[in-house]
Amino acid sequence: MAGASGSVPIVTIAGCVVVAIRDDLDDQDILTLQDELVEEVSRRSANGVVIDISSLEIVDTFAGRMLGAMAQMAGMMNARTIVVGMRPAVAMTLVDLGMTLEGVETALNADRAIEAIRAGQA
Amino acid sequence: MAKEVTTGSVLVEDFDRVLSGWLKVQASENVKRTDLVSAKESEKQSRDLLAALADVAPEAATADGFDLSDAQWAPVREALEEIAENRTERGVSAAEMGWFIASLKQPFFEILHEELGETSAELMREIWSATRIVDQVALYAIETLVQKREAIIERQRGEMTEVSAPVVKIWDRIVTVPLIGTLDSFRAQTVMENLLDAIVQWEAEIAIIDITGVSTVDTLVAQHLLKTASAVRLMGSECVICGISPKIAQTVVNLGVDLPNITTRVDLQSGLAYAFRRIGVAAGER
């Protein structure tokens, strides 16, 4: 996916792939992001993935499912995925939709998530 | 008769007679409620209202399109609102309020009958005119009373909601919300919103819900708790439900409700101890 790079910046910090999702992503962008994310995990042989969704005001069922899928994919590559910064309104909507994202780990912010991933390795 | 006698003119010319007649009827009809409103106050309210009517009625009452919501009736409406507010606070019922105003008809009719007794056509016309005014005023009074009462209920409901879900930060990274009474959908939603906002505000890692004071736990309440716990987890924090009494444990199991992946503790103390362990704070055993 060489041409699609840049739509969402993906950085690696201390062995963790960190991605901050913007609010204006459409479904195609999310699929692209998913591709790039697993590529990055494999290239860096990262052991953690942090997905920051603090700027998302709306999470629909598709985006919710994709978060779960990304966590599962990264997990198969031995990277622990943590979703961080979900807003209260988003959390309430997801729960109302019946999407509790059981398979996905969560944390308050990226800081805590990276801490948790590094602590898990030690 | 030299001058024309109308409802308006009676109000102005025989003001004191109307007032004293009205007060007398109030007493005899038992709408004075001297237990709630003092006689002096009643008299002042009646006088104010009549004065406002006397100011406006002579010109306005004779107009064909009688409308109490017109701008020129503003003083009457103000006087009524004041009375309604005063009486709402004292607990006067809507019927009493209506009859309180409607009893004004009696002195009116009496005077009109005296003045216009011989000419029945005019008498009928003025009786209609007086009835129209008094009834409109009475209806407005009832409506105002009901509105005031609804406003009070609304305010109290707001206050109840406010005090019913206080989220407290009891330690660094630990927030707790003690629940008391019954947990309906509306309150459950408020609790959830407050709790999630508090988690963001204080970056709490643990959210403790204390249900010691919740009287009954049925499937609905369990579902609310489950939803709240799920939302808390999605935010990246952990939910602990405390105050599971033996009775609640029995009901929950007998109802077949499953509380998966939720940490539950018997009381707030053990919940707090768990929270301390989770965030790595050493708590000395007592």
From TrEMBL, chain A:
Recorded hits in InterPro entries, A to Z, give: Bact_StressResp_Reg, STAS_dom, STAS_dom_sf
> Which domain of life, per UniProt?
Bacteria
Task: Give the residues annotated as coiled coil.
Answer: none
Pfam families registered for this protein in UniProt: STAS
**Domain STAS residues, every copy:** 6-117
Stored SUPFAM superfamilies: SpoIIaa-like
Q: Which PANTHER family match?
A: RSBT ANTAGONIST PROTEIN RSBS, RSBT ANTAGONIST PROTEIN RSBS-RELATED
Q: What is this protein called?
A: STAS domain-containing protein
UniProtKB/TrEMBL annotation, chain B:
Record PROSITE patterns: STAS
Indicate what this protein is called per its UniProt record.
STAS domain-containing protein
Q: Does the keyword Phosphoprotein apply?
A: yes
For whether the record's keyword set contains Phosphoprotein, the answer is yes
- What are the record keywords, sorted? Phosphoprotein
What Gene3D superfamilies is this protein classified in? Answer: STAS domain (3.30.750.24)
For this protein, the record's InterPro entries field holds:
Bact_StressResp_Reg (IPR051932), RsbRD_N_dom (IPR025751), STAS_dom (IPR002645), STAS_dom_sf (IPR036513)
Tell me which SUPFAM superfamilies the record gives. Answer: SpoIIaa-like (SSF52091)
- The STAS domain extends over 164-275
